[in-house]
Amino acid sequence: MSNPATPPAVGVLDERPPLTFPPGFLWGAATAAYQIEGAANEGGRTASIWDTFSHTEGRTVAGHTGDVACDHYHRLSDDVRLMAELGLKSYRFSVSWPRVQPGGSGPANAEGLDFYQRLVDELLANGIEPWLTLYHWDLPQELEDAGGWPARDTAARFADYSLLVADALGDRVKYWTTLNEPWCSAFLGYGSGVHAPGRSDGADAVRAGHHLMLGHGLAVQALRTAVPQAQLGVTVNLYPVTPASDSPGDVDAARRIDALANRFFLDPILRGAYPDDLVADLAKVTDFGHVHDGDLATISTPLDVVGVNYYSRHVVAAPVSGEQPEPYWRAQSCWPGSEDVRFVTRGVPVTDMDWEIDAPGLVETLRRVHEEYTDLPLYVTENGSAFVDEVVDGRVDDVDRLAYFDAHLRASHEAISAGVPLRGYFAWSLLDNFEWAWGYTKRFGMIYVDYDKQTRIPKSSARWYAEVIRRNGLAAQ
Ligand code: FCB
């Protein structure tokens, strides 16, 4: 983008009085290592579960892999320049575990760490606060071969790895997120199998979820000592779960899905206990024998911030006897013990992922975390939408994506007005990228990526977001 101060492509901002965010609000954009870096076999990096999964026939759309992705590994400086032109105050990226610690054990790989040191240095030189996520789903394959997240030892391995990163970057990185979306790692990776490593076993998914949180807690304890000045947190993906009607069956279906999707993680991390109703719902799946004395105290080690990723709402209904629901986005069920709950579509506008657009759900979600769980500062660490983009005369006018951001930023502002200590917002995503099982067929970026030529085109939403950042706000409704 040559001139970030260029007025936005759409006129909305100028027709309405401004809606201002609190001073210092952290405006950011997010990515993840496997989705953008490429250079899968360079610099000493070994395979992660996503390399293995994407190279297995039938696992990703059209067999797409992250081998090259956005080639960000080789285009780091150009991409940081684009961020600076957008005026980003912060950039949320993830560190690739097998790049930094090949094979998931032993000493750090200096060449891998060097990449992130250069990234952090360039961000800081451009006045952009680095926001580092330690785990965005790329478990070293060797650790999966040893049992993966269902195995307890993986939690300890994660804490060791976190210290290697802390040693290299602790002096320059203030914001540290342990895990991105442990629900997806556990329930899509080991439950439905639509994500790496592609296993389908409800008990394994529950164990994975526990060990992810244990790894989180151990890493927080390690980082607290290694980087005392750091702001430590975790990012969870949350959904409001609404019953399709107020019938007792629908209400109970919503309770069950809320327990698995939200409270499975929020309660142990922020309250130090699994919810009783969740344990009862899962009784046929697991006896929770994998939970050892002291685990929940570790998992609930105090944090400094909480990250919330928000995309949509779940609307659910009671099972219909004899019917196995098969919603469009799951293979095996990712809801162990509640497989027969029906997911209802309401006929409201959806994104290219078929996810319903529901900005009020963001207000509900943020208020819930604050009002029911914690006074800690909250950050929206991901929010965004996939739409089909078209390049016309070298421009991408992504009005739908822009409207999605606009609506969700208004929701963020509403949450702040309602008393939520929301301190920042990260758009997902900076760049179009490898959208996991969907490969390159879904575009979430504010910046368009031509994967053949590896060129970038800031879309209308990027120009608009630059203006939002410059004004520290939006037009009022
Ligand atoms: C989230 C993931 C992120 C991206 C978005 C669309 O679940 O954290 O990597 O895939 O969804």
Automatic annotation (TrEMBL):
An example GO CC term for this entry is: cytosol
Q: Which domain of life is it from?
A: Bacteria
GO biological processes: cellulose catabolic process
| Enzyme superclass (EC) | hydrolase
The record's EC number reads 3.2.1.21
Catalyses: Hydrolysis of terminal, non-reducing beta-D-glucosyl residues with release of beta-D-glucose
Keywords assigned? Carbohydrate metabolism, Cellulose degradation, Glycosidase, Hydrolase, Polysaccharide degradation
For whether the record's keyword set contains ATP-binding, the answer is no
Q: MF terms per GO, please?
A: beta-glucosidase activity
Quote the record's binding site residues for substrate.
35, 136, 180, 311, 428, 435-436
- Active site residues according to the UniProt entry: 181, 382
Q: Which Pfam families has this protein been placed in?
A: Glyco_hydro_1
Tell me if Hydrolase is a UniProt keyword of this record: yes
The similarity comment for this entry is: Belongs to the glycosyl hydrolase 1 family.
Protein name (record): Beta-glucosidase
Organism listed in the record: Verrucosispora sioxanthis
